[in-house]
Amino acid sequence: MRDQDREDERLLRRVARGDRGAFDELYGRNAGWLAVRLRRRCGDPELAAEVLQDCFLTAWRSAAGFDPSRSAAGWLWTIATSRLIDAHRRHNVRIQPVGEPVDSAITAESAEDEVLARAFSPELAGALHRLSPELRAVLQATVLDGRTVRETSELLGIPEGTVKTRARKARHILKEALA
What we know:
The protein is mainly alpha-helical. The chain has helices spanning 3-16, 20-41, 45-62, 72-92, 111-119, 122-130, 133-144, 149-156, 160-178; strands at residues 94-95, 106-107. Helix 3 crosses helix 4. The chain has nine helices and two strands; from the N terminus they run H-H-H-H-E-E-H-H-H-H-H. It folds into two domains: 3-91, Rna Polymerase Sigma Factor, Chain: A; 120-178, Orthogonal Bundle (Arc Repressor Mutant, subunit A), CATH 1.10.10.
């Protein structure tokens, strides 16, 4: 385990006891890299900033539930991505006028589909969409977020060998789909 992970875990234990100074230090150590990764996933800087704040508010409230068998950075990133997806859904909900069928009253694209549609060619976005969620999660962590195999392993809770296998399989499927 890296020294930074140990220190972040120590800070999270203090945050769980309501230590505001530890929270400020945890924020200072992690807000920068979280902000960069959120901006990579979200084209709206204001939304990314909102999600970052929501992530740390959740961390403050949920620190007692942190599982020390995971990395603190992975735990924070899991919270941040969850909040980003929630934010995309909130911002994309469209209410239909009264009189429309009830089934179509509220519609929302998934945040991932929206990001893929804007960031990549239609062919690549379609090929990525057809990947299984397990393969797509590995590609998102390693390619879009720039995580290492080890970080992806910790984030997704799977062995490093599985990360490598899934990444290789996903690249192979994408290569065939785009050939």
